[in-house]
């Protein structure tokens, strides 16, 4: 039986719901009515979980973690997208602490051995941000249509994990990483670069609606993707400008 409780020393507070539409929406409603920074809304089941670009996000009850963190950053608003990098690093570090080799596919998919194990969806309001995180923890197998591109911690390790412990590990790291989106961004960036698995790789991307193939040469000082096309053009790409082909 899993116990969902954070330690007294945690800077986060946990609200567990059996079933919601999307934890990001529940978090947004609470933030809009004044809920303070640090509340984490975790749902055992999401009936309308969503991923980036409006894609559905399925989190099988009992197997996965689906939660959203209310953040009220003190950093200027143009730095808030960096929360996605902070969350990616936090999830990767947490997964690694359980002995699995996690990497980040820019901007914020977390991979194990080239397959996606976690996704992150950051949404903002006027004076708050919602950091939504979904992790495939104890799925023994995934549907055939995604098995080639997605995985779970259990599939990779051939054992199950305590979901409350995985949650606590992510939150421990996020507490530290989220403080680095402003003045200390160079520290977060350095960590992000260590985990980023597409630097030096050839990729095909849809850049502003146009298909391009080339080399990812790195992550810029602002956390953007630096992409050199085969025709020799360099693009500095923001997270929402591209689609993988
Ligand atoms: C992605 O990879 O496209 C992002 C997936 C984000 C899923 C999480 S699960 C908790 C939170 N609630 C949602 O509806 N989405 C995020």
Question: Mean pLDDT, rounded to whole units?
Answer: 93
Number of helices: 5
**What is the molecular shape?**
globular
Note the main sheet.
7 strands, mixed
**Residue share in helix:** 10-25%
| Class based on secondary structure composition and strand pairing | alpha+beta
Give the spatial strand order of the biggest sheet. 1-2-3-7-6-5-4
Brief overview:
The protein has helices at 23-32, 82-97, 153-157, 163-177, 185-195, and strands at 13-20, 39-46, 64-71, 102-105, 109-112, 115-124, 129-136, 202-207, 210-219, 225-229, 234-237, 242-244. It has 245 residues and is α+β, with helices and mostly antiparallel strands.
Give keywords:
five-stranded antiparallel beta sheet, 245 residues, seven-stranded mixed beta sheet, 12 strands
Overview of this structure, please?
By secondary structure, the chain is an alpha+beta fold. The chain is built from 5 helices and 12 strands. A 7-stranded mixed β-sheet has the order 1-2-3-7-6-5-4, sandwiched between helices. A 5-stranded antiparallel β-sheet has the order 11-10-9-8-12, with no helix packed on it. A hairpin with a 2-residue loop joins strand 8 and strand 9. Helix 2 packs across helix 4 and helix 2 packs across helix 5. It starts with 12 loop residues before the first strand and ends with a strand.
């Amino acid at each position: 039986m899993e116990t969902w409780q954070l330690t007294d020393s945690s800077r986060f507070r946990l609200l567990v719901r059996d079933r919601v539409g999307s934890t990001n929406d529940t978090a947004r409603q609470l933030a809009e009515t004044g809920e303070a920074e640090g509340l984490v809304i975790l749902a055992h089941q999401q009936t309308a979980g969503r991923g980036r670009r409006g894609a559905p996000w399925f989190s099988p009850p009992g197997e996965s973690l689906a939660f959203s963190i209310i953040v009220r950053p003190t950093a200027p608003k143009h730095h808030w997208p960096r929360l996605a990098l902070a969350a990616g690093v936090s999830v990767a570090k947490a997964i690694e602490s359980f002995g699995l080799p996690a990497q980040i596919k820019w901007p914020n998919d977390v991979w194990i051995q080239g397959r996606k194990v976690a996704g992150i969806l950051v949404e903002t309001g006027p004076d708050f941000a919602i950091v939504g995180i979904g992790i495939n923890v104890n799925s023994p197998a995934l549907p055939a249509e995604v098995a080639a591109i997605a995985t779970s911690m259990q599939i990779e390790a051939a054992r199950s994990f305590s979901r409350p412990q995985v949650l606590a590990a992510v939150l421990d790291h996020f507490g530290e990483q989220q403080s680095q989106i402003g003045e200390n961004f160079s520290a977060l960036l350095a960590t992000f670069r260590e985990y980023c698995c597409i630097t030096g790789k050839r990729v095909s991307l849809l850049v502003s609606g146009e298909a391009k193939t080339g080399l990812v040469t790195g992550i810029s000082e602002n956390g953007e993707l630096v992409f050199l096309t085969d025709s020799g053009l360099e693009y500095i790409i923001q997270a929402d400008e591209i689609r993988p082909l």
